[in-house]
Amino acid sequence: MDLMFFAIFLVATFAAGATGAMFPTGEWYKRLNKPSWTPPNWVFPVAWTSIYLLIAFAGARVAPLNGNGYAMAFWALQIAFNTLWTPIFFGLRRLKGSLPVMAGLWLAVAGATVTHMQLDLWAGLAFVPYLAWVTVAAALNIEMARLNPDAVPLEPAKL
Question: Domains in the chain and their CATH numbers?
């Protein structure tokens, strides 16, 4: 594995993860009705840090391989949807509006899992925890939208 590729993919993942710091959960999130199976708050940064390390590893393993076009496209697509979801859910507080982004994220992660697996077993396996986590996150997103039908979204600031 090329360490420069790993560093590039790691920067990309943690740049996406920075949206969590830019749009913290806050009191609004604490007041939402959540399903009983919602993980405790400490689980989220541990899970995301682990996932970001794994997918940076996966990207670095696949980037130098011939025939990696679809894998790299899915890698880019999943990190784009990953970056977009947090500002929509936490920033704009659009529980239902974040669902299409979550669906795109799930499909992109599934696509990345399959295409990485086709090129490199370890790279594909590195995406499996991410796919599991995004499946749980999607279920949480759906349930929170259902349990909070009266949640008022924020309007973007006018320039």
Answer: 3-33+44-147 (1.20.1260.100)
